C-alpha cells in the first residue's frame, strides 16, 4: 500500500466524505486504510472480539460504540489479534485501553479517548450495518482512510492509496 496522506487524497478526490475531527490516532500504524467492515455495539465488545479473530484481508473494522466514554471496546489482546489476522486498522467511536501496547502494535487504531475499564460481554452487537457518526455514513464495502490529519470515507477504493 502506498503512503496514505488524507489531505492529498481529499485534493485528488473532492467527493470523499471527511469525518468530523474528534478521533485520536493511537495505533502503531499512523496511516491506514481499506475496505470497511462495520460493528455497532454499545459497551459490549463481543462482536468486535469475534471479528478480529477472523481474517481481516486488509480491511478496516469501523466500530460504532455510541460514543461511550464509560468503557473500552478494544485493548491490547484484541489489537494484537487483529494485527495477526491481517486487519489494517480499527476505528472506534468510543474508547480503547492498553494504549501503550496498542501504540506498539502493527495496526492502525483511532478512537475518541482511552479508558481503563473493559467492556461487558453479553453477546450483543450488529455486524455489517450502516453506521452514522462524525457527520458521515460508513457503509460496509466502502473504503476508509486515516492518518494524523483525519479520517475520510469513499464509496470506492482510491488508487493513490492502494
TrEMBL record:
Q: For this protein, what reaction is catalysed? A: oxaloacetate + H(+) = pyruvate + CO2; 4-hydroxy-4-methyl-2-oxoglutarate = 2 pyruvate
For whether the record's keyword set contains rRNA-binding, the answer is no
Q: Which SUPFAM superfamilies match?
A: RraA-like (SSF89562)
Q: Which InterPro entries match?
A: RraA, RraA/RraA-like, RraA/RraA-like_sf
Q: What is its EC number?
A: 4.1.1.112, 4.1.3.17
Q: Which GO terms describe its molecular function?
A: 4-hydroxy-4-methyl-2-oxoglutarate aldolase activity; metal ion binding; oxaloacetate decarboxylase activity; ribonuclease inhibitor activity
Protein residues bound to Mg(2+): 98
The source's superkingdom equals Bacteria
Classification via Pfam families: RraA-like
| Positions annotated to bind substrate | 75-78, 97
Q: What class of enzyme is it?
A: lyase
Enumerate the UniProt keywords alphabetically: Lyase, Magnesium, Metal-binding
Needed cofactors: Mg(2+); a divalent metal cation
- Give GO BP annotations, semicolon-separated: regulation of RNA metabolic process
Q: How does it assemble?
A: Homotrimer.
Biological role stated in the UniProt entry: Catalyzes the aldol cleavage of 4-hydroxy-4-methyl-2-oxoglutarate (HMG) into 2 molecules of pyruvate. Also contains a secondary oxaloacetate (OAA) decarboxylase activity due to the common pyruvate enolate transition state formed following C-C bond cleavage in the retro-aldol and decarboxylation reactions.
Sorted alphabetically, which NCBIfam families does this protein's record hold?
Answer: NOT-MenG, PRK09372.1, PRK12487.1
Q: Which family does it belong to?
A: Belongs to the class II aldolase/RraA-like family.
Q: What is this protein called?
A: 4-hydroxy-4-methyl-2-oxoglutarate aldolase
